[in-house]
Amino acid sequence: MMNKLFQQALGIESPWYIKEIEFQASSNRLDVYIDFTKGSKFMDERSGTVCKVHDTQQKSWRHLNFFQYDCYLHARVPRIICPDGRVRPCLAFLGRSCSRFYVTF
Q1: Please, is 35 exposed, middle or buried when counting C-beta atoms within 10 Å of its C-beta (0-12, 13-18, 19+)?
Q2: Are strands 87-89 and 29-36 parallel, antiparallel or unpaired?
Q3: How far is C-alpha 34 from the chain's CA centre?
Q4: Mean pLDDT of residues grouped by 10 in the chain (105 residues)?
Q5: Number of other residues whose CB lies within 10 A of the CB of residue 87
Q6: In this structure, are residues 63 and 73 in contact, taking their beta carbons and an 8 Å threshold?
Q7: CA nearest to 25, candidates 64, 68, 78
Q8: What are the helix and strand counts (H, E) for the chain?
Q9: What is the largest CA-CA distance in the chain?
Q10: What is the DSSP string of 18-57?
Q11: What is the pTM of this model?
């Protein structure tokens, strides 16, 4: 239930989902772990084609506070295999559907 609440509040859409939430009251910290479903494909913004995931890079962002607690978002950001054979970061992750991850702060 809590994962769904955070997913809606952050505007996370399929294939992305909240994998885990860690709350540490003693250190005033909330960590939200975001992932995508296995087998997902992502749009290459440059070519407009849907591409397979090559690998991922772990990234973290400081988000707005959750009440008085520091909030951090963590995600495996995919790198995709483009039609030209190059491996590039998935820009869609930082684009429309996930822009609220970092622009709000």
Answers
A1: middle
A2: unpaired
A3: 5
A4: 89 93 96 96 89 95 93 95 91 54 48
A5: 12
A6: yes
A7: 68
A8: 1, 7
A9: 49
A10: EEEEEEEGGGTEEEEEEEE-TT--EE-TTT--EE-EEEEE
A11: 0.83
